[in-house]
Design brief:
Elements lengths: L1 H22 L3 H9 L14 H9 L11
Length: 69
């Protein structure tokens, strides 16, 4: 009986996670950029020009505050 409850809870958590990622797929990048994990966030990401990247950073001043000064 307890194993079934655990399995149902795990399935529910996975479904909730998938729903959140479906509604807001960019959340992965926001979390990565806000935690500072990975490469230098002030350099343009692949597929962006310098100007496009500056525009993107200006839309998220709380995440890129040190890059916008």
């Amino acid at each position: 009986m307890n194993k079934k409850i655990i399995i149902y809870v795990l399935i529910a958590l996975v479904l909730i996670g998938l729903i959140i990622l479906t509604i807001n797929p960019g959340i992965i990048y926001v979390l990565r950029d806000s935690t500072g994990v990975g490469e230098d966030k002030c350099t343009p990401a692949s597929g962006y020009t310098e100007e496009e990247w500056r525009q993107h950073m200006s839309q998220h001043p709380s995440i890129y505050k040190e890059c916008l000064t």
